[in-house]
Amino acid sequence: MNNLMNVLGKQSKEAARQLSQLETAQKNECLLQMAADLENNTQSILTANQQDLKQARKNGVTDPLIDRLRLTDIRIQEMADGIRQVAALPDPIGVVEKMWRTEDQLMIGQQRVPLGVVGIIFESRPNVTTDAASLCFKSGNAVILRGGKEAFYSNQMLVELMQQTLRNNQLNTAMIQFVNDTSRDTANEMMRLNDYLDVLIPRGGAGLIQQVKMNATVPVIETGTGNNHVYVDQAAQLDMANDIVINAKAQRPSVCNAIETLLVHEDIAPEFLPLLEESLASYPVALRADSKALTYLKKAGLAVEEDWKTEFLDYILAIKVVASLDEAIEHINHYSSKHSESIVTDSYQNGQRFLKEVDAAAVYINASTRFTDGVKFGFGAEIGISTQKLHARGPMGLEHLTSSKYIIYGDGQIRE
Amino acid sequence: MNNLMNVLGKQSKEAARQLSQLETAQKNECLLQMAADLENNTQSILTANQQDLKQARKNGVTDPLIDRLRLTDIRIQEMADGIRQVAALPDPIGVVEKMWRTEDQLMIGQQRVPLGVVGIIFESRPNVTTDAASLCFKSGNAVILRGGKEAFYSNQMLVELMQQTLRNNQLNTAMIQFVNDTSRDTANEMMRLNDYLDVLIPRGGAGLIQQVKMNATVPVIETGTGNNHVYVDQAAQLDMANDIVINAKAQRPSVCNAIETLLVHEDIAPEFLPLLEESLASYPVALRADSKALTYLKKAGLAVEEDWKTEFLDYILAIKVVASLDEAIEHINHYSSKHSESIVTDSYQNGQRFLKEVDAAAVYINASTRFTDGVKFGFGAEIGISTQKLHARGPMGLEHLTSSKYIIYGDGQIRE
């Protein structure tokens, strides 16, 4: 195994032990200084970012990707404000969630503790560096950040500045570490760094997530893919359904909580689909409809099997007419990636059945799927959206970066 | 990939969907019938078990292992009673643990749902079959059981009987499935059955757990190893410390919540160690002491570095004298497997520091580590003891076999 990852892992583990014992006030003070130090070094960050942008242009990177890479005064300000928001959140560590007395008269409490060392493998956007580092720090976890090569210089500078703040606070700089080697080797080694990593969180496209899932021996929290649906029930208010579908599809189609497929009850399809097509005219959304839906639409193509399975992340909407709520639920449970699903209905019974029978991280009645988000859920921040069932499911905030330990008060009990 | 595991996986996934929708009363009724059906078929179970025992003797299996394999009328009765206890536990599924209103006026509730399909790879003891199957069933999960070859016929018969009960209740028999091929291939395929398994829980020795950890691409809950300590502080009551050490070491040394190393403060060692050695005389416990401890003991050997790292699971106790609470905590955090750790002390401050600074699933003041157990913790039953930090840490009961989903009530909200 590469020496670099082992060295980083060992340092992080020691740093995690120290970080787990910090008081909330110390952590918050340090976060506020990190935010100020970022702002005060805006010029250094922009200079490092220029190096990344220059390299990206040389490599013929596309404009949207260049835009995601680019830092500006305002974006750096937003990153600093993001850190301040994390400082303002309640500290999850030390909270005893429940405590009870057992038959043996032991008092047992379940207390929140840090996970330990969190690894994050992420792609282009540099703001993930400060978001993830501040969330891990506040939740008492050491973090090892392994970003993509596109944002290498920006990420490196951001971590150096945060480490400088740690140093100024007499704290171990290994509390926030950066992998300064973006070769595939370091990613692969992180996936098998069982002696040092307590969890690995991949943040990026489906390819990265699949690669981590299939190669990691350390515990992983899978994030990301959303093949989501809105089902417009026969008892829906058409205007509400129209607004929700447009919002869920067209407000920001590149994100994981946008929808890919619309299901419409056959009784309402003749009225609803023409209305929707008219409203969608001002957005560049291409429609791919099944044969029934096609009869109510002017400018739609015919959907094929592959469309029901695809997370387009684009201005494309697949549309299917269903004969019943059962058919809608069956379609969703078969094709969805179990991220976010919504029904639009005024029927009490149909709404309750949808909530009970649809298997997904977030199931909605009468709202856009775009709300599946740590900040919108009220968690204050988000480290990602889990699409697995273990540990955390759905948007993950500070609390989901913790584990627990049982603290047990006895007075001499032994087991019979 | 082997056709068998894919077929089982697919069937289990479909069965899991049905099982997730069963009402509590249906599940309990079915569990009570399973218990009765086991008792009513005691003779068939004993006959199958005889086949395993005969094979084991032929293969020269050791007496303790034969004893773990052997079923009797009483053991079958205990298995049936275990199922009845699971039926009597509250159903975790459907519980909404918290619900809140967001800034956007969405009502969001976090509701307990089954994990889906649980895989269990386990070794010799046939009672794991009925324990695991009943816990998974009650928590709404389909289960795929892959036992060891030693208990093949017993396990197969137990699953057949439980499936017969499912059939009598017009339920899908794939809710409880048995892998009737104990080759290494089926275990390896289960570890990579990502399309169908939501979690894999290995139950057995360190070798099995390591193998699963290093090869699985499905999410795993690691169970098991306990390299545990009792630290006797200078402010300990000697009688209490003596009772706790003897209980934690000698009551049942083969289990994961027994201790392997005793740490004693140097101020109290001259008085405590001779007392302990005398009390231990009636147990066949071999002592391996560091050089300081050795001076207070008559019949101890010298401990070597390897002893601090070893989970003996036997009548062996390593003993080390420490100069301070700090040294004790440092030793524990360095060598322990983070399972169960206990301090014996009358000092308020030392007890609190131990609870805060020792990193383990269960940390005790003034009690034996032997209480780390789902039943003793009040969970009513136990599927295993997790030694990882993700998802569940410490004893796992019904609740730890669940995931959650967010159910969200809106009235037309779209995201700005």
TrEMBL record, chains A, B:
EC number(s) stated in the UniProt entry for this protein: 1.2.1.41
Subcellular location: Cytoplasm
UniProtKB keywords: Amino-acid biosynthesis, Cytoplasm, NADP, Oxidoreductase, Proline biosynthesis
InterPro entries tied to this protein: Ald_DH/histidinol_DH, Ald_DH_C, Ald_DH_N, Aldehyde_DH_dom, G-glutamylP_reductase_CS, Glu-5-SA_DH, GPR_dom
Pathway it works in: Amino-acid biosynthesis; L-proline biosynthesis; L-glutamate 5-semialdehyde from L-glutamate: step 2/2
A single MF term (Gene Ontology): glutamate-5-semialdehyde dehydrogenase activity
A Pfam family annotated for this UniProt entry: Aldedh
Top-level enzyme category: oxidoreductase
Catalysed reactions, as listed in the record: L-glutamate 5-semialdehyde + phosphate + NADP(+) = L-glutamyl 5-phosphate + NADPH + H(+)
Aldehyde dehydrogenase domain mapped to chain residues: 10-285, 315-378
Domain of life: Bacteria
Stated role: Catalyzes the NADPH-dependent reduction of L-glutamate 5-phosphate into L-glutamate 5-semialdehyde and phosphate. The product spontaneously undergoes cyclization to form 1-pyrroline-5-carboxylate.
Family per similarity comment: Belongs to the gamma-glutamyl phosphate reductase family.
NCBIfam families to which the protein is assigned, alphabetical: PRK00197.1, proA
The protein's name in its UniProt record: Gamma-glutamyl phosphate reductase
Lineage: Bacteria, Bacillati, Bacillota, Bacilli, Lactobacillales
